[in-house]
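User: Show me a protein chain along with its predicted structure.
Assistant: Here is one chain, sequence first, then structure tokens.
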Amino acid sequence: MMRSVTGRLMLLDTASLYFRAYFGVPESVRAPDGTPVNAVRGLLDFIDRLVKDHRPDHLVACMDADWRPKWRVELIPSYKAHRVAEERPTGPDEEEVPDTLSPQVPVIESVLDAVGIARVGVAGYEADDVIGTFTGRAGGPVDIVTGDRDLYQLVDDARGVRVLYPLKGVGTLQVTDGAVLREKYGVDGRGYADLALLRGDPSDGLPGVPGIGEKTAAKLLAEFGDLAGILAAVDDPRAKLTPSQRRRLDEARPYLAVAPKVVRVADDVPLPDVDTTLPHGPRDPAGVESLAARWGLGGSLQRLLTTLSA
């Protein structure tokens, strides 16, 4: 269930952005008690700049309630395995996160809630899936802000869906639409997931098809349309595949049978009934004041509140 969204919707891949803030803002930025708050302040500055530059009508900070869902791991056990700090028999595994970043995440969540920015995470799903579901149900244009190229698969010029990809902070964003994808990768949004699963992605533990890199994957998709077309070509002796391509793709069938469900973002997440409207004033003024004093967020938080009220 979600409320109707008809204006411009901005969806934040929040973890992607606070990781960038953490590494982009010096750890010397600290609260009065000496606790690092570089990720908190950096994220607030990011959001301030995004709202100023793009003026969304709706804004959602999408969260990873489960950064490594078991249903994905059951299909491809290597999925994000190299990023596991501790396996847990119940609940999500613990992700490897810098020691001075982990304590900042609850502060980020508290500040977003006090300001009144919608924050949505759904058990059993990654932020990408929340973003995919919001995007699919939106009635107007959508800006997805992420440093994760996986979400390029959602780009859709006909619906006004684009990805704002930070190149340097959020001051320099690559506005990624269909033209950019075709120029850089030879595919549109619909084809990007097939490209990604064919080439693989070491950062997510996706093996891909051995010997099929990005350029070869793009050529195969241009020739045969999509993954189903490529696999049909493997069975067609007249199809223009080299012997090695045919053999490698044939041997990769078990992986290719499950990879689409892992790589493609879900579009059926049970979203909560949440007000996504961009706030013009803090939902909890006393809470904002308390958090600003406790964590020394003065300048960053005040700039964001001023921008929201404009």
